[in-house]
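Work Package 4 report. The design task specified in the project plan requires that, given a folded chain encoded as structure tokens, an amino acid be chosen for each position. We show below one input record used in the internal validation round.
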């Protein structure tokens, strides 16, 4: 799976070299980052004897650093990631990774513009009946989206529904997303 995802990533990168339009190029880069997020999950899973038990904090740290290098190499971003989850089911890992990918890339592209620093806080902890909470916060000032219903936000909503979850977003001293999600095996 990881090798196939790397081939897809390479194909998209090759194709994007032929694109002159910067907006289209950026969309290709976003697609590449989503695939890298999935590929990284498989890499972390196969490094463990127990495929369903990966170090979620380590995974999120690694993904965040990769996204920072891609989207905001000139911004110093402080990461504070805490996970009190023992494990996530295999069918939960990819949607959570893609949600995280969208959140952090959105923060880097929209919340920290014209700044040289920013802070992102992530907390994951168990709730009752196979549910867990994901809290994501940045201290940025978001620019207004150029259009309503961006692909990234629609993807977050779809992945939240896929995990029988709910999400709320508030803008108070930055942006805060709170997800209540089901841990699907």
């Amino acid at each position: 799976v990881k090798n196939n995802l790397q081939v897809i990533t390479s194909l998209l990168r090759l194709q994007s070299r032929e694109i002159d339009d910067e907006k289209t190029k950026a969309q290709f880069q976003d697609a590449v980052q989503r695939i890298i997020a999935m590929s990284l999950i498989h890499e972390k899973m196969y490094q463990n004897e127990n495929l369903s038990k990966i170090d979620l904090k380590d995974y999120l740290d690694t993904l965040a650093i990769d996204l920072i290098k891609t989207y905001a190499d000139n911004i110093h971003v402080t990461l504070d990631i805490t996970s009190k989850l023992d494990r996530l089911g295999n069918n939960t890992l990819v949607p959570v990774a893609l949600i995280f990918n969208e959140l952090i890339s959105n923060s880097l592209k929209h919340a920290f513009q014209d700044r040289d620093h920013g802070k992102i806080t992530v907390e994951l902890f168990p709730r009752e009946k196979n549910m867990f909470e994901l809290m994501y916060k940045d201290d940025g000032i978001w620019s207004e989206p150029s259009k309503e219903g961006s692909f990234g936000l629609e993807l977050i909503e779809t992945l939240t529904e896929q995990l029988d979850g709910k999400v709320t977003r508030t803008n108070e001293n930055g942006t805060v997303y709170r997800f209540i999600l089901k841990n699907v095996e």
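The chain has a mean pLDDT of 82. Validation will be extended to a larger panel in the next phase.
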